[in-house]
Amino acid sequence: MMFAPGAAACIGACLIEALSPERRAVVEQQVRTQGPARAVADLSSDGVGRGSRWDILMIAIESGDVGWLRVAGALRPGATGAAGEALLSALSTALRRNAPGVLGMMGPTIRAEDICYQRIDARPIDDKVFEVHTRNALVSVADPRLTALRDKCLAILTQHSEE
Q1: What is the pLDDT of residue 4?
Q2: What is the 3-state secondary structure (H, E, C) of the chain?
Q3: Exposed/middle/buried for 151, CB within 10 Å: 0-12, 13-18, 19+?
Q4: Could you identify which of 9, 44, 90, 127 might form a hypothetical disulfide with 54, taking C-beta atoms 3.0 to 4.6 angstroms apart as the criterion?
Q5: What is the mean pLDDT of residues 124-128?
Q6: How far apart are CA 119 and CA 115, in angstroms?
Q7: pLDDT tens for residues 30-46?
Q8: What are the extents of the domains in the chain?
Q9: How far is CA 99 from each of CA 24, 147, 157, rounded to the nearest angstrom?
Q10: What does the pLDDT read at residue 75?
Q11: Cα–Cα distance for residue pair 39/153, rounded to 1 Å
């Protein structure tokens, strides 16, 4: 098991441990041995709400760390329903922290249409903060291999900000 039961009760220390490279290696191994669908089912067995193992895993992915983005890509084919929505939301947040890393993940299961906007209902000011930070991260992407995805993401972000 990746996280101890009752992880919500010890958020500080448990969260630091949960974000560690050792924990990331455990999840990567779990996906390799069980496959994405079974790994997602196990990792979200206590739900996907605040303080759940899945939620703590999403916090790690939100960091934008390259290793955790790799985990997200491995889990995505098996993440459906609420777990899938939470994963896309985590990638949306990670976009402003590591735009090149997230853009580089895009493909059939991780599409710009799914992550290039604020995925949670938030106050208008939170939406604006998200938009500004994400836009700043995206415009700084200069890698020619990512410019088409960057531009598509910026267009989606603009479209959602005007709605």
Answers
A1: 45
A2: CCCCCCHHHHHHHHHHHHCCHHHHHHHHHHHHHHCHHHHHHHHCCCCCCCCCHHHHHHHHHHCCCHHHHHHHHHHHHHCCHHHHHHHHHHHHHHHCCCHHHHHCCCCCCCCHHHHCCCCCCCCHHHHHHHHHHHHHHHHCCCCCCCHHHHHHHHHHHHHHHHC
A3: middle
A4: 44
A5: 70
A6: 7
A7: 999 999 999 999 999 98
A8: 7-162
A9: 20, 11, 13
A10: 97
A11: 29
The token pair that represents 137 in the structure block:
């991260």
* Cα–Cα distance, 77 to 156 (Å, whole number): 23
Q: Which residue has the tokens 């985590």?
A: 90
Tokens of 103: 């853009």
Alpha-carbon distance of 47 to 44, in angstroms, equals 5
Token pair of 104, please? Answer: 């580089």
Full-model pTM: 0.87
